[in-house]
């Protein structure tokens, strides 16, 4: 599937005497803002703006290149426990891993996304990008609330849920999500849970 500034290419290579015509399904608007500028001006990305500044990713998101930012909204940050959020925001390495987990290495418009697509993030992990009817999905969840916000250096999709990579979790958080959750309970009962956090 080929897109031009997120407009889908419907028919290609109509040759004329003075050139060639490609038919697309949208009017292409002028794009003048970088991904960083979109973050700075969008009210619903206020928490993300602060996180990007704290992790020193501003220069990357305004540099030349082609990225996809899965931008967590303020509501996405509000969904995780305050204690967890404070821990990540206070740990530069975990914060950078978290944000890099939301950046894909290439620009990916919604029209070009098909079911079962695996995309690599800047953090080095992968995300399963797909679609369910009209909705886009990430790791099987329809969490993209606003898609195809074009920038000069890529595209932004707004997401209403935070995607936390394993590298930004404590041992306790990882254990709770895995097959050793009963062991976690034993650590807690023995008064040793602080070692896992």
Automatic annotation (TrEMBL):
<dbReference type="GO" id="GO:0005615">
    <property type="term" value="C:extracellular space"/>
</dbReference>
<protein>
    <submittedName>
        <fullName>BGH3 protein</fullName>
    </submittedName>
</protein>
<dbReference type="InterPro" id="IPR050904">
    <property type="entry name" value="Adhesion/Biosynth-related"/>
</dbReference>
<dbReference type="GO" id="GO:0031012">
    <property type="term" value="C:extracellular matrix"/>
</dbReference>
<dbReference type="Pfam" id="PF02469">
    <property type="entry name" value="Fasciclin"/>
</dbReference>
<dbReference type="InterPro" id="IPR036378">
    <property type="entry name" value="FAS1_dom_sf"/>
</dbReference>
<feature type="domain" description="FAS1">
    <location>
        <begin position="1"/>
        <end position="28"/>
    </location>
</feature>
<feature type="domain" description="FAS1">
    <location>
        <begin position="32"/>
        <end position="163"/>
    </location>
</feature>
<dbReference type="GO" id="GO:0050839">
    <property type="term" value="F:cell adhesion molecule binding"/>
</dbReference>
<dbReference type="GO" id="GO:0007155">
    <property type="term" value="P:cell adhesion"/>
</dbReference>
<dbReference type="GO" id="GO:0030198">
    <property type="term" value="P:extracellular matrix organization"/>
</dbReference>
<dbReference type="InterPro" id="IPR000782">
    <property type="entry name" value="FAS1_domain"/>
</dbReference>
